[in-house]
Amino acid sequence: MCYLGVNTACALQSLLKSPGWRPSFRYFHWSLSMLGAFLCVAVMFISAWHFALIAIFIGAAVYKYIEYAGAEKEWGDGLRGLGLSAARFALLNLDNKPQHSRNWRPQLLVLLENTDSPTTHGILSFVSQLKAGKR
Fold it and tell me: How many structural domains does the chain have?
């Protein structure tokens, strides 16, 4: 399981092009890490599939417990990095395709004073209806 975690982390760091990830091994490639992770899982299931399932279940349970308990971490979250990378990829590919009128969405910027007046709430309610309640 440790080897699986290390290989998966190395592959993700390389695929996400994390600025802090600088492998020193000259022949490193992300596909080698993914191959190592796949082989680790394959050997686990070939040797004893029931123990492999138990180990994966225990590892997932420990991960969820740590996530639920809110452990302090200073190194960032790999899944958040994956999401940010996917969002960046999607944003960079927006201009490559022509926009159809059916896909158009209004982009609104509302500048208001930070008060609790009924006018402010009315304007924000109106703008929210224009955006179909989405932020």
Answer: 2
